[in-house]
Design goal:
CATH topology: Jelly Rolls
Largest sheet: 5 strands, antiparallel
Shape: globular
CATH class: Mainly Beta
Number of domains: 1
Helix content: 10-25%
CATH superfamily: Jelly Rolls
Number of strands: 11
CATH architecture: Sandwich
């Protein structure tokens, strides 16, 4: 019984310490509502990603529209750096992996995101 309790405690502690796809980010949900006539919901949020923070590759169970409020420099997995300027917009489609970069430099990346996703599912799923 003691081994079982110790194993449960280790799993609990490791889940607290494990990095997530959005470790150290700040997501502020501005509005969330059901999408009329569907089994989907719309979530409008602001995501702030400080320098040194990585966003792991992930997917969404629906569409994500992104608008860059405050730009920053991104470091891709191969080490190349790419500017993500203010005013840039994009759309990430259902179940297609994206992100996998780290914010570098001294500027926080600030994004306005609009997700239209399947209701009741996790908004973000780590890419396989």
């Amino acid at each position: 019984m003691l081994r079982f309790l110790a194993a449960c405690l280790m799993v609990l502690v490791s889940s607290w310490l494990a990095p997530s796809a959005f470790a150290e980010t700040n997501r502020t949900v501005l509005k969330q509502a059901d999408l009329t006539g569907t089994n989907m919901e719309i979530i409008i949020a602001v995501l702030e990603v400080p320098p040194g923070t990585a966003i792991e590759r992930h997917t969404h169970p629906g569409e994500e529209a992104v608008y860059v409020l405050e730009g920053a420099t991104l470091q891709m997995p191969d080490g190349t750096e790419v500017a993500r300027p203010s005013g840039q917009a994009g759309v990430n489609v259902r179940d297609v992996p994206h992100a996998g970069y780290k914010v570098v430099g001294d500027k926080t990346l600030k994004l306005l995101t609009v997700h239209i996703v399947d209701k009741g599912k996790p908004m973000t799923v780590p890419a396989k």
